[in-house]
Amino acid sequence: MDEKGIQRINELAHKAKAEGLTAAEKAEQKKLRMKFLADIRANVRSQLNNISVIEKDGSITDLGETIGKKKPIRMEDAE
């Protein structure tokens, strides 16, 4: 997400505290937050794909493969 998107998230958060949001603004806020979280998850997954752990027995575990086998958390499940 670019800097404009993050600024807009912050603007909407401040407005929500100060005076409240319209239905359209709430929908925009939710959409922006979902995009932000998706970008963070993609970034973390990319980093994990490049990390390997050497176990005590000498075997090498690729974190990207290990973590990738788990079911991803979706925002719909968290709400």
Tag the structure with descriptive keywords:
two-stranded antiparallel ribbon, single chain, rod-shaped, 2 strands, 8% strand, 67% helix, mainly alpha, 79 residues
What topology does this entry show?
Layout: H1 3-18, H2 23-49, E1 52-54, E2 60-62, H3 63-68, H4 75-78
Antiparallel strand pairs: 1-2
Helix pairs in contact: 1-2
Shape: rod-shaped
In terms of DSSP E residues, the strand content is 5-15%
For the CA atoms, what is the radius of gyration?
A: 18 Å
Total DSSP E strands = 2
> Spans with pLDDT under 50 lasting ≥5 residues?
none
- Give the ordered list of helices and strands: HHEEHH
Strand line-up of the largest beta sheet: 1-2
Average pLDDT works out at: 85
The tally of domains stands at 1
| Largest sheet geometry | 2 strands, antiparallel
Q: First CA to last CA: what distance?
A: 22 Å
Q: How would you describe the oligomerization state of the chains in this entry?
A: single chain
Commentary on this structure:
This protein is mainly alpha-helical and 79 residues long. It has a two-stranded antiparallel ribbon with strand order 1-2. The chain has one domain. It has 4 helices and 2 strands; from the N terminus they run H-H-E-E-H-H. The protein has helices at 3-18, 23-49, 63-68, 75-78; strands at 52-54, 60-62.
